Amino acid sequence: MGSPFHSRSISSMAFLWATFLFLTLSTSSVVNADDTPTVYEVLQEYDFPIGLLPKGVTSYEFDNSTGKFTVHLNSTCSFKVDSYELKYKTTIKGVLAKDKLSKLSGIQVKVLILWLSITEVIRDDDELEFSVGIASANFAVSNFDECPSCGCGFDCKDVNLRKIRPNNPFSSF
Tell me, what's the pLDDT at 63? Predict the structure, then answer.
């Protein structure tokens, strides 16, 4: 039989050890979370607005040396903005460079009755040019200052969705 003092010491030491481990693990995950930029911050580093991606990104991979990226959403995402219907698959891939997103896959726009893949986005000053290969449309960068929500786009509180107008209607989808 041990003395009451001895068992309290072991209990106290175990408590202190558990507290130390908890604080160490908690602190290290907070530091790692702060060191890794969000995918939205990565977009901004390459001069793109955060609104190119909807809310609901669960993870991403990005290779700084090649610019190749993969973004994962929690589910497929679609919404309508003005006369455009957009659809994001659960996995979006491409190559990111300063002012240019290329080799995109996983994002589509509905044009008339056809779903066309958006293959490239180029930033030129205050405009974004979206290309579907055979056609392109330009929009003001400011249209994408906020992230759209799946199902309702940019304005989920109001039935009337915010209008995004092409800057150049002659080359519009």
Answer: 95
